[in-house]
Amino acid sequence: MRWTIVLHVLLMCVIVGSSDDSEAEILLDFKKSLSNVGALQDWDEDVSLCTGDKANWNGLLCAKDNFYGLRLESMGLSGIINFESLSKLPYLRTISFMNNNFNGPFPANINKLSSLRAIYLSNNNFSGEIPGDSFKDMNAMRRVYLGNNDFSGKIPNSLAGLSKLVELQVQDNKFVGRIPDFKQKDLIANFSNNKLEGPIPSVLSKESSSSFAGNNLCGKPMGNCPPSKKKSFPKVAIIVAAAGAIALAVTVITTLLLHRRNRRKNKASNFKKTSGKTENKVIQTKYNYDQRKEAGLPKHTTDNNTKAEHAGKLHFVKNDTERFELQDLLRASAEVLGSGSSGSSYKAILLSGPAVVVKRYKQMSNVGKADFYEHMRNLGSLSHPNLLPLVAFYYNKEEKLLINDFAENGSLASHLHSNLKPNQPGLDWPTRLRIIKGVGKGLDCLYKAFPNLPLPHGHLKSSNVLLDRTFEPLLADYGLIPVLNKEHAYQFMVAYKSPESAQNDHVLTRKTDVWCLGILVLEMLTGKFPANYLKQGKGRNADLASWVNSVVREEWTGEVFDNNMKRSKNAEGEMLKLLKIGMFCCEWDVDRRWDLNEALAKINELKERNGDDDQSSYASEGDAYSSRGMTDDEFTFSVNG
Fold first, then answer.
1. Is residue 103 part of a domain?
2. What is the pLDDT of residues 569-614, one digit of tens each?
3. Which of 88, 121, 246, 295 is 20 to 30 Å from 155 at the Cα level?
4. Per 3-state DSSP, what percentage of the chain is helix, strand, and coil (rounded to 5)?
5. Residue 634 clears pLDDT 50, i.e. is over it
6. Does one domain contain both 387 and 432?
7. Do β-strands 400-405 and 355-361 pair in parallel, antiparallel, or remain unpaired?
8. In this structure, are 493 and 434 located in the same domain?
9. Is residue 638 a part of any domain in this protein?
10. Distance CA 300, CA 348 (A)
11. 3-state secondary structure 1-16
């Protein structure tokens, strides 16, 4: 009996071992169908997949020494998702490829993974129609995420046959036709921003209206559906009715134009009578109406019957700030700060004393109210010394206002590129080093707070790095890509596009943020304005990194560093290290480009002065730079080849 038990245990070990080897072989075969697989370089058949609940292969999910899922998110992956290969893994329960660069049609043979419980394909570039039977017989499926792609055609009817389905995300695609007749009572779904039409299935009537926005749908929770039967009228009657409608429209428009002209005359007359008598009724602003109009603000008014332009409510997300109303902003002294691709911003000095910055966004019209509120609350919950806190927001269907604290020392861009006054010192090396370290800490906080966002910042540039009274950096304009209109986000929100995103506007990966960090590092060290070197998508000599590379190769470092940056010889070694870090963040080859953690680790090792161990962090373990084709002696960069 005892030998039987021992033999049984030995057989189980053999079975488990062979199964693990088999899973490893299947996964390595699956990997061959993928491209840009630098994040999967630790997949090694000589290493066990799991140790307890810990995965030894990047992107695997494990429990009690068993592999059960793939989480290959935000890795810059592309190529083909070979479900045929994955179907050989009998214990695979969940797979996620969100926030990558997959394109082309919906992957075939997904229904061969009959035991799959969840699939996440959101935030890629898949396109075309999904076959109606794609999810047939996947009776264990509970969650399907297809949002933020370019799918077209009808939503597969086979999804409605998944009895255990509890969550479905298909928003921000081009699906057409009617929503399938779902029967799952506990289903949570998002169909927003497609081209769907017709009635909403009754089982979904308790969903938020934002889940159906951006379509032509009717029924609860949207508006009532029109009567299904329509009377047919003779053609003559239709023509007569149309002619009558046109005549009525002409009459109404003429009346409105005459009424508007009379109102303007009356206003001009009243202004002459009352000019000079109302100066003490309200505190006047320093800036005229034209400036307010440029910033997107309504002009001041003393009318008690305030119209729709004053309607609405500010929603505060920062608890330790003084409350004020939208009316207080409208009455405040307003200074236009700038106008960019995302919107206009201005500084408002409230009557109670504090100054705030208000930014107006018009490119958020596609986001639903519930989603917008939720994301703003998430942003408002962030608390970090290097993030500009969100104070409050204002929601309107057509435009949104975000209110932040005011940073006393303006933006990093203004200190790097504005003409300095006589005897005004530029930012010295210790200050610049402190700023870039603070920027890194802020980015690290965003990456941990939003692990599923492809670009946790998404708009990193020197004008979005603000400085407080102690010159501590504050990241601004972060985390907004999820609430921006999709096309606007792809086109404008990445300040300095990485090569892969410049060639394909829909390619957004976490290494795009790293590219922007590298450009920011080089901008701080050189004092050069990156936009002067930016020719998106026009070859490899089209960015600040390429200019730095060419100067270093031809003239060493003498012409690279900013003349306004006070520096001494005992700091040049550290400055040179930071220059190298910037170049590795601006590597053209995405697989060779550092990830954020690697870049931040090197930045945090930098000192204000050269130390005795000046070369230690770069010379150890065979030299981290040399392993990537670079040596300290040559100091050549692979950015152009």
1. yes
2. 678 888 889 999 999 998 888 888 898 899 999 999 998 877 644 4
3. 88
4. 35, 15, 50
5. no
6. no
7. antiparallel
8. yes
9. no
10. 13
11. CHHHHHHHHHHHHHHH
